[in-house]
Design brief:
The protein is α/β, with parallel strands linked by helices and about 375 residues long. It contains 14 helices and 14 strands. About 40% of the residues lie in helices and about 15% in strands. A 7-stranded parallel sheet has the order 3-2-1-4-5-6-7, sandwiched between helices. Strand 1, helix 1 and strand 2 (about 30-40) form a beta-alpha-beta unit. Helix 3 packs across helix 4 (about 110-115). It has helices at about 10-25, 50-55, 75-95, 110-115, 135-145, 155-160, 175-185, 195-200, 225-240, 255-270, 280-290, 305-310, 335-350, 365-375; strands at about 5-10, 30-40, 60-65, 100, 120-125, 150, 170, 200, 210-215, 245, 275, 295, 315, 330.
């Protein structure tokens, strides 16, 4: 009898975090993959990740529209509540044998709560990490709800066990997104025109002599400052005056401030070297990143994939506070002068040695094998 494995994807980064797992599960004859796409992964303004998922050959079993507009703390809380309601119905209809929750975004805790209250075994990918955001609370809460833990580093494994989880069910598989980075590192040439393939808005600077990539998201615990934060980065990028590919922020509280800050800045300043994108295929994005001089902002991509690819990173602010990192990262505050200096410093140092801190490229098959074969349970007690 096939094991029914439900994987819930709620945002565009979640897909790249689990793509190789999905591929391995899809090719497993004794598995019925139930792919549930929800929240911002369904919305065009955040890249419509569901279209990319289907283009990659995956069949979506269910769609859950649960995002409330507002991009503030209240909207995030209500979106989570609606997610619990809708996902509970989906789980009741599909009756999965095990549910997979990915990472630490606020929507993912809805997956964990629904599965736990319905006595469905829960697996969690990327628990045990630390950051300076609401994601910290969400991540550890999901850890306590989850029955199986597929962590991305030894430090994360140790933290999950210290939280009282049974060591027999905590597996350091590495991060599945590193699986994609392995493919890129083997063939890093930028073999597509990002402007032609992905559109976007803004200038179209020549990329042949190098470029920067910017990914800056709001910080939910500092969401009222998000516009000021992004303005400091915009001023720095304007002063550096290098070709820059800037990716739109995610749906977190404060995203309105970040988006408004970018739009207002463009109205009053000539950004002749900056182009803005909504989203990009995961492998294409990593190939673009691999050829960048520096990644600027506060995305976990700088901590994970950029470390493996050896790309220098200027990490701004507290969003990635205390997350395990390699030597490719410089940490600075939201200050134009500091950002300029750090970018110049990182460009001068150049490409770094590849770090395997978050795995070596076989996480997807490891996780799929465990999901297929692990003894199923949904009741546990604290071990310490």
């Amino acid at each position: 009898m096939k094991r029914k494995i439900a994987v819930v994807i709620t945002a565009r980064p979640s897909y790249s975090r689990v793509k190789t797992v999905l591929t391995a599960l899809k090719n497993e004859p004794n598995v019925e993959l139930q792919l549930i796409v929800a929240a911002s992964a369904l919305l065009d303004r955040y890249g419509n990740a569901v279209e990319r998922i289907e283009a990659d050959g995956f069949q979506v079993t269910a769609r859950v529209f649960n995002v409330l507009e507002g991009e503030n703390l209240t909207a995030a809380a209500k979106t989570t509540g609606i997610g619990i309601l809708e996902l509970s119905t989906v789980f009741d209809n599909l009756k999965p044998d095990i549910v997979v929750s990915i990472a630490d975004r606020f929507e993912t805790i809805a997956t964990a709560i629904s599965a736990s209250y319905m006595n469905i075994p829960l697996a969690h990918i990327q628990g045990g990490e630390v950051t300076g955001n609401i994601d910290e609370k969400v991540r550890h809460a999901i850890t306590k709800l989850a029955d199986y833990h597929f962590v991305a580093s030894e430090g994360a494994k140790e933290r999950v066990i210290k939280l009282g989880e049974n060591p027999d069910f905590v597996f350091n598989t590495g991060c599945p997104s590193i699986d994609l980075a392995v493919e890129v590192l083997a063939n890093p040439e930028l073999d597509f025109d990002p402007y032609q393939k992905y559109g976007g808005v803004g200038a179209k600077p020549d990329l042949s002599n190098g470029y920067l990539v910017v990914m800056q998201h709001p910080v939910t615990t500092e969401y009222k400052e998000s516009r000021r934060h992004v303005e400091q980065t915009l001023l720095a990028i304007q002063k550096i005056n290098k070709p820059t590919l800037w990716f739109w922020p995610n749906i977190d509280a404060g995203a309105d401030g970040t988006s408004t800050g970018i739009r207002a800045f463009r109205e009053h300043h000539a950004l002749e070297q900056v182009h803005f994108f909504k989203d990009m295929d995961g492998t294409d994005f990593l190939r673009l990143l691999s050829n960048a001089k520096v990644l600027v902002g506060n995305s976990s991509v700088g901590i994970r994939e950029a470390a493996f690819l050896g790309v220098p990173v200027v990490n701004i602010g507290t969003r990635q506070n205390r997350r395990d990192r390699a030597e490719n990262v410089i940490d600075i505050s939201y200050d134009e002068t500091e950002i300029v200096s750090a970018i110049q410093n990182q460009m001068a140092k150049g490409t770094r040695i590849s770090s395997h801190l978050y795995g070596s490229g076989n996480a997807g098959t490891q996780i799929a094998d465990l999901l297929r074969s692990v003894d199923l349970q949904f009741h546990k007690t604290i071990t310490y």
